Structure formats: structure tokens, C-alpha cells
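Appendix B, record 7
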Amino acid sequence: MATPPSPPVHIDLWAILSESKRIINAHSRHFQALSVLFLLPLSFSLSTCPAINHLFSQSSTPTFENHLSFLKNPFQHQQPSIFPIKTLIFTLLYTLFTSIFSLLATGSITYSVFHGFYGRPVKLVSAIKSAFTSFFRLLSTCLICQFIISGILLILGLVLFSLVKATQLLGFQVNFSSPYFTSLLMVFLIIFISIAAYLQVNWAFANVVVVIESSWGLEPLKRSQNLVKGLKGIAFSMLLFFGFFSGILSWGSAAEWGDASADKWKSWAFVLNIVVTSSLYMMLLLYNLAANTVFYMYSKAIHGELAGEIAEEFAREYVSLPFDDGKVPHVVSVV
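C-alpha cells (predicted):
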């Protein structure tokens, strides 16, 4: 069995990416299979979302407003929609689809990278089993994260609303189209983004902790906050690195195919763009999950938690074979 790599004295983003690449290359077929199973549907949906959403928004569909007006007066001419049902259904289905495959990919790839880090053999069946066994733990943890972030956004919204109402009560008129109000909105937006980024840095290991340590809820968030101490700069650089390239791919898809029509699906350029973008998305997501797991292992080593696990790992390589009674048992190494 291969010796687990010792973490470098100086850990940075490139060391983490290099180790992630080593593990992926060492089990290339395994990670290709997991990518096709879980990451390809996710990356394809991310690549085609702007085009599909545009097609949905172009179609004339019944709305909740139309239904309510029909109940009031069945013979009244219905007005154009402002809340299309198909767009709402598409958004809900898209969110459900991407969430399911994202959680399955996280569970399977994190499990595989963790075992690959130790040099253990990785098996596709075990990785898929890990994806389903950790699914609901990951789901509950993600829901708690979203609840916390949504709560912060709600609080900031209430503060902004209170400021506007207090200004109006003092007798001042608030012009919502003025540059002053726009600047105020930008300040609140920057505050929210800063808080969200800070939380994401502190929760960098949350999903890895859920899969590897079989915890869920608030416990992985607290555990991640402890492990990331002293390494927040690296966690932030990883957030910027993968966020930057994800943003470029998302912007490219929206800018190039945001005005897609039904005829464009027959275009070779359109299909080629989707294939290339989906492939890049898939590789980016794979390396993101792998890098988070490697970073988690390096963090444990820095905090002095990995040495015991490595010793325990090598202890499994030895078995005691009792021979005759009264004799000292021999210890043999299993190669």
C-alpha cells in the first residue's frame, strides 16, 4: 500500500491543486466514471440554463394572475402575464435537479479523494454507496447554511426598510431612482456579500466533514470553523479561484446564448459551445471537490490530527496470528 503523502511545510493553493491532480490522475478511470454519472448532468444543466430559461420566458403561458382574474370575470380579456407559471416550475425543477446531483457528486468524489489520499484502492460501488448514504446529511447541512444566509439577508432587508420608513416619517421624500438610494443599496449589497464570503470561508470544510466524519447539521459548521483557523487566506483564495472561473463560464453561457431561440438548438456552433462549456464545468467541479478534500487533510495535519490517523492506518497493515497456546504470537506484515 502506498504511503500517504506528507503535507508540505508551506501550504498554498498550488500545492493543494497539485496534490488533487495527482490523486485524480492516479485513479483517472474512477473519477471519469463518477464525473459522467454525477458531474456531467450538473455541468450540462449549468451550461444550458440561460438558453432554456430564455425559451421558457419567451413562451406565452398562463399565470397565477390570469387564473385569479378569470375567477373574477370569465369573459374579461386577460392581460399579459407578470408571473409566468412555466418559469416558476422551471426554476423549481432546475433547483431540485442541480441540488440532487451536486450532493451526490460531493458525497462520491469526496469519499474517493479521501481514500486516494491515503493510497487506498478506490472502488466505484463504494463511492456510489457513499453518495447515497451521505445525501441526507449533506442536504440537512446545506439547508441550515442557506437558512443562516437567508436570515442575514432578511435582517439587512429589514434594516434598509426601517431606514427608508424612518426617513419618510421625518418628512423627507425618498426618491428610489436617485443615485443616493442606489449607493445605499450598493452598501447593503457589499455588506451582505462580505458576510456571505466570510461564512463560506469558515464553512470551507463543512461538506467534507459531513462525508468523512459522518456528522450533520451545525456540527460540521463548527468543526470546519475550527479546522480553518490559521488557513483562512488559503480558503479565501480557493473561493476566489474557483468562483472566478465559474463566473467566467456562467457569463460566457449567458452572454453567448442568452438570446437562444428554438432554431439555435440545430446549430453546430450552439451544440459545440454546450459541449465545451459542459466539459470545462465538469473539470472545474471535479477539481473543486478534490481540492476541498485535500485541503481538509492538510488542515488536519497542521492541527496535529493526521499523525494518529496515519499510524492507525499502518496498524491495519499488521495482523497477529496466534499459533500454539503458550507461545508468543508472531506478527506478520500483510503486503
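Remarks on this record: The first strand starts at residue 318 and ends at 321. The chain is about 75% helix and 0% strand.
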